[in-house]
Structures are given as C-alpha cells and as structure tokens.
Write a structure and sequence with these properties.
heterodimer; A: mainly alpha; two-stranded antiparallel sheet; 4 strands; globular; B: alpha/beta; nine-stranded mixed sheet; 13 helices
Chain lengths: ~475, ~425
Amino acid sequence: MAADPQSLDSQGRAALALHRFGFGPRPGDIAAIASDPRAALLADLKPESARVDAGALMDSGAAFRALFEFRQERKAEREAKRMDAAAQPAMRDAEPAPAKAGPPLPQKVYLAEAKARYDAALNAPVGFAQRLVWFWSNHFCVSADKGPVRILCGAYEREAIRPHVLGRFSDMLLAVETHPAMLLYLDNARSIGPDSFAGLRRHKGINENLAREIMELHTLGVRTGYTQDDVINFAKVISGWTVVPPRNPERGGEFVFNERMHEPGAQMVVGKTYAEDGFAQGRAVLEDLARRPATAKHIAFKLARHFVADVPPPSLVDRLEKRFRDTHGDLLEVSRALVTAPEAWAAPAKLKTPSEWIAAALRTTGFAPDIRRIIGAQTLLGEALWRPPAPKGFSDESTAWVDGLAERLDIANQIGRQAGSLAREPNELVDAALGSLASKETREAVKRAASRPQALALLLMAPEFQRR
Amino acid sequence: MINAPHAPTRRELLLASGVLFAWAHLPRAARAEGRDPRLLVVVLRGALDGLAAVAPVGDPDWIGLRGDNALTLDSEPKALPLDGFFALNPAMPNLHRMYQAGTATVVHAVASPYRERSHFDGQDVLESGFVKPGAADSGWLNRALASLQPAARVGSKDAFAVGPVTPLVVRGNAPVLSWTPPKLPPAGDDTVMRVLDLYRHTDPTLARALEERVDLAAIARDGGLDMQPKKSGPMPQVRGAAIRNYFSESAGAAAKFMARADGPRVGALAFDGWDTHAAEGAANGRLALLLGALDGALGSIESGIGDAWKETAVVVITEFGRTARINGTEGTDHGTATVALLAGGALKGGRVIADWPGLSAAKLYQDRDLKPTTDLRAVLKGLLRDHLRVDERALASAVFPGSERVKAANGLVLAS
C-alpha cells in the first residue's frame, strides 16, 4: 500500500508525521512542515501545545459542587410534584410537561468539555502534544458512565493529564491518583482502613480496586511480580485518599487525605516497607512504582504500540525504556526519543482509532458538525468518548477496530454528502490530505468517483487515510 | 453525519427523507397570467446512459452497438414504445403512461456545453450553467430566480432552517431554503464496491474486513435472519427496496411541499449512483433498478403534488452520457450526449425531441459517444422562459453566460 518510507519525499514524510503523530493534516499543513517534519514534531513538544481553551469550564471541585446542587434541585422538584399530585390527583394529567431546557447539567458539562477537547485537536497545527494527551488520558482512563464522573471527566483530563504530558511521569501519576474523578471511578473514595477511626466505628473496610489498577495498568503492568498481598497493603496505604463531600460549599469535590479513614501503620509493598507517614506514605509508594524498571518497560511498550505498530519493534521499545529510566521518567525526553527513533518512521501500519480517524476527517474537510454528532460518531464506531468499557481503556490494536470499517464507510458517506459539494477539488484534497503517501490506486479511485461527495468518501476510506 | 439522537424538528417531520432545495417566492409574471407554475429540477449525478433509458430501437445500428444489451421492442423485458423510433426502458411505466397522456417529453442526443469526461467538471458545468467548469460558485437555477421579480413571499422562512450545504445548481444570491434529511440516503452498492475494489488492490486486510461485513449484511437481509446488528450500522449493500424508497420518499415529500399554497414553487433534488462502468444491467440489473426508482419518484411527485400537477414541470438532467458501445465489463464509460426527461401537466408532451445523429461509427462523437445535437441549455432556457417567464435577456447573460447563440427551445410547455 503506502510507499516505502525510505523512498518518501519530504511531503510524504510530512504527511506520515501528521497522520502518525498528529490528527492528520489540514489543507496546507503538509507544506508547512515539509522542510523538516521531525523538527516540527519536536517543536510541538511545549506546554502550550498540550493545553485546551478552558474558557468558562469549571474545575473539578466546582463541577462536583454544581452537581450536588443540581441533584438537590431535582430532588426538591420531584418532592414538590409528589406533594402536588397527592393534593390534587385529578389535576395530575392536565399539568403541562415542564419545558425542557437542554440536556441535564452533567451532560451539558460533558459536551462542553468534549468540544474543548475536539477544538484543541482540530486546530492544532501539528497535534503531537494533543495526541500525547489522548494517549495518556486513555492510559489513565476514567469513565463518564460511573456516577459523578460524567461531570468530572473533562476537568480530570485538563487537571491531571494535560499539565504533565511533557513533565515527569511520577507527577502525572500523583495527579491522577489523587484526582477526585479517579478516586470515584476506582472506588478509593470510599475505601476505609479497617483499623482506622472510621473503620472501627463503621465496620467498613478497604477497597482494593484503585491499588490493583495502579500496579496492573498504570505503572508496573500485569504479571510483573507483585502479589495479592502487595495489592492489599497498597490499598491500606492509600486508604483515606478521598474526596471532600460536595455539600461542603468551599472545598466540596476536592481531594483530601482523611486521616480518620486511613489504615494506620507501616505497610510492605513490593518488597519495601513504608513507615506510617499519613499522605506521604502513599506518595512514597507511587514514587517508587514510577521508578521501577517494570514501569519503564510497560510505558515504553505502550507508547511504541500506540504510535508505531501493534507489535512494536523491540529496538524501539528498548530505546524508549532506556530513555525513560535514564531521565527518571521525563516524558518530554521520552516523547523526543520516540520521534527521533528511526523505527518511528516506518511505513504506516496501524489502523487509526475511531476518534483519530474522525478528527482527521474533520481536519481534512474543514467540516465542523455539532459536538453531539462527533460524539455520536465515536460511539457508533465503538469508542464512546471518556466511556471506556473497563479501566484498561480502549484498545490500541488495529484488530479491535477493523470490524468497524463498514460503520466508518457510513460516516464517510455522510461527511461526503454534507461537506463534499463545498469542498475543493477532490484531487487537491488528496494532495492536501496525503501528499505523496497517496497510492496511485487511491488517486485513480478518487479521480474516477461519480461525484464530489463520493470522491470525498473514497478519500476518507482510502487505506492511507485509515492507517497511520 | 452521525446518528446522534435529537428531537425531530418540523422540517424533519415534514420531510422524512431526501433533500429539497427550494425557493420561496412566486414568479410574478407567470402569476399575472393567472398561473402558479412549479418547477422541480432533478439532477442525476454520475452520468445517465441515455441510450439505455430511451433506446433508439428504430436505428439500424442500434443492435450492432449494444448486442445482447440492446433494449428492443422484443427484448425481455420489452422496451415500451414511444414514437416508433424510440422506446422507453421497461423499468419506467409511470413515465410511459405520462408520455401517452401527453405530459412527458424526452429530449435525446442532448448535452451541456461540456466536452471532456470528468464527473466533477461535468457536474460543475451542468449545475453552474457556465461554459467552463469552476467558473462560478452559483447555479443557473438560482440566477434564474434572482432575475425574477418576486410577486409575494410564500411560506415563512422561519419555519425552515437554511442549511449550509446546497447543490451548486441552486446556490447563489437568491434566498434558498434547504431541508437536510435526518435519514441519509443508503450508501449505495456503488460506493461500497469502489472502496472494496480499492482495498483489494492495495490493502487485503481491509478488503477482507469490509467483505465480511458486507456479506453479513447481505445474509441478514436476504436470508431473513432476524439479526439486528448490535450497532446501528449501515447496510452497505443496499438493494432495490431501499433505493426505491429513498427516491420515492424524497421526491414525494418535495412534491407535497410544493403542492401547498404557501409552499415553495421551485426546487431541486439530486440522486447519485448513475456511473455504471460495470455490469450496467439496463434491462434487469442495477441501471434498471435506478431507472425504476426514478420512475417511482416521478410517480410520487405526480401523486404528491395533487392538483398542482397540471402546473408542474419536472426536468431530469445529468452531467453527460455514456459510451455508445458496451465496454469489456458489461458497462459503459463516460460519454457525451444523453437524454433529458421532462414530465408534468404543464408540458406539451407526448413527444421525443431529437435531431437524431445516427449511431454508425462515422456518426459517433469521437467514434465512441452519441453525438450531441441539442444543447441542454436550449431546453432549460425554453422551460425557464415559457414556464416561469424568466426574461430572455437574463437567460442569455446572467443565467447561462455565453449562451447568446443557443436559442431557447420553443413550445415545451402549454403556456408558451
């Protein structure tokens, strides 16, 4: 299919860079970085490239408090209605339904956050830093389908992921594991040490969920030598890491270390004893986990698999792992190592994930549908935004997504129909979207299309546009 | 794109399917005569094989050109006789009935001024009304409307959203209402097959994955399996019923709109899928199915528009025709002249209008295509002038620039 990267000209390498490490080119983007695609990727690794226009978006504390008030109001309305109904049963049916003022608050916030995320991706000149945000957000995923997380998931990404994607891994780890969204998603917010003040009074116990996933998914990786005892002990260490109840008007919804829920005493985790030190005990465990060789290997493998190949070249994984260890988890350095590695410039091999493909399609066509429709497309293609099926996140492997090709065709048709007649010449679009990555078969197919909408659909479905 | 749940708006309830682009003003001059004319333009994108739609069964070279694929009065199914020389594709009984009732006209060996063979450029010329592609970002229908003095506003613009995407033929300064369908046209066989073909040549993994899904969908549909796809996915291989329904529903809904006293008077619809390079199937296959769907759409317009049918003209146009001969894959490639189909009670119909060029090798355009002998702009100018009373000078300058020497066809409609 795609040309051998060795034989790619500068336009081809620029297109490859934008598809593999960004969200695909907008018209003109290939030319803009063609003189040195690698330098453009490196230059994108600056904090402002990883940001999002937060505008009027709430921080997670404010969002959780707003959710509490919203629920209180709802409850009061229901209560009032019930009282009314009891008082005047005959009137019940005559009552006009209250006018619906858009989606309920959590959905409204979710949509606004989703829009900010997409705006950042669609407007990014290069997009590498934003892609790193998407990668890390999926690595440390939470799910909007779990209770209050819906109103928090966007704030979580802005607060715990974005500031750290070019910083230290251990800082991101700490930000993530102390974020209310994660503590609620993986149940640590209600984990109580059995011998803590609260545990003794309420006969409640610890919840291992977060402790296990930190080791299995976030740091060391599955089957890397930790035991069930390590999980339990670590859970005890982080018992008391919880969230201020949202009814608290000042600090509601913020992280708090609650001593009264914390299991007292020293704990042994993965071969090392941690003395009782309150919150600092857990922070010390996280720092050590971040430094372990297994973590470096795990992260290196996931980065290489995500960006380069389902079965990444071992040499690339080794290179990233070494960089991670040598720099004590400096993610800027690891990201730089990724794009300077020769293996990272191999021919496109992976199928884009649904969200990457959608973003690329929108960037290429300039088509700007309502955010609800973008989210609808992601859901249709099996990658519902911020709603992964499990804490492991969405798959990074092509085989997980190839079944959805027919649905992609459906969406490509829809985009073609709505954007096709306004778009420029489809042949120009091929150049703008793929440069010299485009095979002659793809060029022919687009050229021979029966209409502009069909030409656009064919371009979006072309192997070079589906893969990266 | 994309199936996000949303509350249906009024326009969606009114128009369950299809795209209608319409103009909300009444043509004043026609109004002064006590008429209230309707014009609906149907654009067939992909290039209709005019010889398969209306076969020159009386031409001695016809059977030699198409062989077994030639429709004749004794082929199976039999072509429907029109005037002794021409016969209509058997998939079009409605149009045949209209023809016999004097409310349908066929114009044959007709072409726009475009003489190359690119769909995009051909569609551009067809819809812009300019001689060259890429010359304008407005369409002839819009410019024709802009030249009319609006007699009165019809309908309330507030009732309908103005959509962002309109076909070129109606784009321009005259205000246009557009309805975007909530239900999208079925992704035709054609696009699926083109994507599959591309994958087979370039990416076997993707080819296999898409083939499996296409097969599954076909089994679910044809085998009567009670299998609801988990995701509300598409049915990539859409067969007759879906296409028929889509054409018929969108045309019928458009007609019902135009029937209303406060409804639009001028509209445009576009149907894709006519690019029959392989396995054309003029008698029993894909083209027969498409022509049948188009015929159903004409029937839906007639019934949907009700009493206003007698003041209606529908004109069906396409960017160019197809090769006169069948190619190596039982299809036809991009050609030149084709047909334009006119239907409606306003027409002085029951005629085939053709300055027939003949089909012998020497008579074919570049030894491959039906030679164009009628300029499509003459037909359109005649309709616009006599049906809507668009000013003749405007037709020669603003509407079809560079067409001063193309005389409007006379006598297409009863009101002329």
